[in-house]
Amino acid sequence: MTVDGKPTLGIGMVGYAFMGAAHSQAWRNAPSFFDLPLVPRLAALGGRNAEAAAEVAGKFGWESVETDWRRLIARDDVGLVDICTPGDTHAAIAIAALEAGKHVLCEKPLANSVAEAEAMAEAAEKAARTGVRAMVGFTYRRVPALSLARRLIAEGTLGQIRHVRAQYLQDWISDADTPFSWRMDKTKAGSGALGDIGAHIVDLTQFLTGERITGVSAMLETFVHERPVPEAFSGLSGTATTGAERATVTVDDAALFLARFSGGAVASFEATRMASGRKNALRVEINGTDGAIAFDLENMNVLHHYDHTEAAEHAGYKRILVTEAGHPYFAAWWPPGHLIGYEHSFTHQAVDLLNALATGTDPEPTFADGLRVQRVLAAVEESAAGDSVWTPVPQ
Ligand code: SOE
Fold it and tell me: Which tens digit of pLDDT belongs to each residue from 164-212?
């Protein structure tokens, strides 16, 4: 099938909540704003509840619905499987899709355990030998200001990196009566703030510096141990049954750790969903011998850069509004100064993936990158369980 003379790629997306909505708009918008070698077709939406899935499919423009992900993978018109489900199902769906010769985009964190992530990375490596590709959805790499930061660091602008400071602060579960959800259930989510948002800053800092985290010393904390179960809640697995009034929280509310990077930098990380007043503050500051960068997702079109090689008398942090045509991704959007938002990084993710598929290259972040993050998350949990003992990350 072709559209405007270009080949199409049928997408089958499993899951349709927060991430499903973000991915749907990305698949729809990508060909409208970017000149793509492959045009995505929203072929099938997968969800167990046929009625609810059909409603969402209509809203977001999916052509059909499948209630079993195995049937979705088996469809001839699906060439790429997009996994937007909780972590406990990532490994089974991704491995089955890759074995069936379908490309895969999988939401982060890659899996709920290192063992699952290893199996997924192995399946991806095997599939790549036959031209089938896999990518994990660490979308913040594709915020233009952060892509620019990566460019500056890779060009050596900051010199030798000494400090990495990363935080991901939200407050949506600060209240003890915020209802229980799958994100508080270890069997579904793998971990709490650590995997949900901490995974982003682990991937992002490794991406920005081009270095790896080699060891950690960590603390995890759960402040609220039980939460009310919402009436219509049906997503529990093991920790409570539907109809129960309260469910036990089995994940961390906050994760803090110190780390070392392979190039010698020292680092601090903080991920919490209880930082009252902070809504989605992913902040990174990196200091090197020749300068620094600072970024806050709550002001996502701006990158701060400090040039330490300038004369002290007029040196100072410079505010770069990352909206110029020469900035990453921006030429496809608006005139300078016309800001973009959270959802655009998902469109950039779809664009980069489609370009990689068309040129037969491995899209990044790869499943191997996802596995590297998973190993850091596991080391954090191990360290925290052992009174913050220094824990090396297997490389
Ligand atoms: C998706 O990338 C995601 O990590 C969500 O799962 C988090 O809950 C969100 O707050 C940040 O983005």
Answer: 999 999 999 999 999 999 999 999 999 999 999 999 999 999 999 999 9
Q: What is the location of CATH 3.40.50.720 in the chain?
A: 2-139
115 C-alpha to ligand 1 centroid (Å): 23
Atom of ligand 1 nearest to the CA of 183: 8
DSSP E strands in the chain: the ranges are: 2-3, 6-14, 39-46, 65-66, 80-83, 103-107, 134-137, 161-169, 213-221, 226-228, 246-248, 254-261, 266-272, 281-288, 291-296, 302-307, 318-321, 391-392
Q: Please, where in the chain does CATH 3.30.360.10 lie?
A: 143-385
Whole-model pTM?
0.96
Give the C-alpha distances (Å, rounded to integers) separating 336 from 50, 142, 324, 329, 332. Answer: 44, 18, 5, 12, 11
Question: What residues flank ligand 1, with Cβ below 6 Å?
Answer: 19, 108, 139, 196-197, 200
Nearest CA to ligand 1 atom 9: 197
Which two structure tokens, joined as six digits, stand for 299? 């002001």
Superfamily per CATH, domain 2-139? NAD(P)-binding Rossmann-like Domain (3.40.50.720)
| Residue 305 CB neighbour total at 10 angstroms | 18
The one-letter code for the residue type at 295 is F
Please tell me the CATH code under which domain 143-385 is placed.
3.30.360.10
Q: Atom 12 (ligand 1): residue with closest C-alpha?
A: 197
Q: Would you state the structure tokens that stand for residue 181, as one six-digit string?
A: 């959800």
Q: Report which of 41, 50, 49, 46 is spatially closest to residue 83, judged by C-alpha positions.
A: 46
